[in-house]
Amino acid sequence: MNQYRSEQFGDVEFSVDVLTPGEPGAWQEPDPLLKLGFDPDVAEYLDIGLKKDAAYSHAGISTPKSTGAFLKNGPEFLSYYYQEPQEDVYEILRKKGMLRSNIENYQDWASLPGEISSTDFVGQYDQGQGGVDSNDIWRHEYRHRGVSQAQQFNPDIPLANLTKEEEETLLRLYDYEYGRPKIKAEAKEYINNQGEAVPTLEHANKMAREIMEPEAITPLSRILSLFN
């Protein structure tokens, strides 16, 4: 599959866009969990055949190597994500009139060009118009990858042992804290329905920061932290 990023300058531009959360003119420093998960080389664009005006509810995805190893393209991943046969997913999109006019049948859809190029990737679907800002989606999914990185580097910390529900609620708190109005509103609704997350943003950021900066964590600093 074509990488979402482009080479050289495009890589830098993509990084700047994703690593500057908040409103234009009032950007914030990227949070440690975002920085832990961010890698422009694993960004993938997943084409699922939508028309430009067809908004889709799930726009992004992050997958560890064990999941992405056997997935080939956007339709196959969509089928895997919803645990539904590809034929059924196609029929849902077709009946809702969401597919492009050049996709005339199931075979056209299932064989959309492009191949997922990595087993460890962060992807974004073509979500159509009126959706959440694409960079907010990238940030949300890269934070999922940050949690996966924590599981690899330090599997004993609370950040590495969240349930799927706890992880998603935590990331919605990040969306609310760092996101633009649309994703902020969605995050607020989600949190109101699910409740607060454990760990807190402050604790999650601290754990992510310690993974990225292990040289700063010494026996003395650990003792001193008990008094902070």
Instruction: Name the poorly predicted regions.
Output: 5-9, 216-228
Topology, number of strands: 3
- The averaged pLDDT comes out at 79
**How widely separated are the two ends?**
48 Å
- What percentage of amino acids are in beta strands? 5-15%
Shape: globular
Number of domains: 1
Q: What strand order characterises the main sheet?
A: 1-3-2
By secondary-structure content and strand pairing, the structural class works out as: mainly alpha
The helix fraction, in percent, is 40-55%
Tally the helices: what do you get?
A: 11
Radius of gyration, CA atoms, in whole angstroms: 19 Å
Could you give the order of the helices and strands?
HHEEHHHHEHHHHH
Major sheet characteristics: 3 strands, mixed
Detailed description of the structure:
This protein is mainly α and 228 residues long. The chain has one domain. Helix content is 49%, strand content 6%. It is built from eleven helices and three strands; from the N terminus they run H-H-E-E-H-H-H-H-E-H-H-H-H-H. The chain has helices at 9-18, 32-37, 65-68, 74-82, 86-95, 106-110, 134-153, 164-178, 181-194, 201-212, 219-225; strands at residues 43-46, 60-63, 121-125. Strands 1-3-2 form a three-stranded mixed sheet. Helix 8 packs antiparallel against helix 9. The longest helix has 20 residues, at 134-153. The termini are far apart. Mean pLDDT is 79; it is low at 5-9 and 216-228.
Q: How do the strands and helices of this protein lay out in sequence?
A:
Elements: H1 9-18, H2 32-37, E1 43-46, E2 60-63, H3 65-68, H4 74-82, H5 86-95, H6 106-110, E3 121-125, H7 134-153, H8 164-178, H9 181-194, H10 201-212, H11 219-225
Parallel strand pairs: 1-3
Antiparallel strand pairs: 2-3
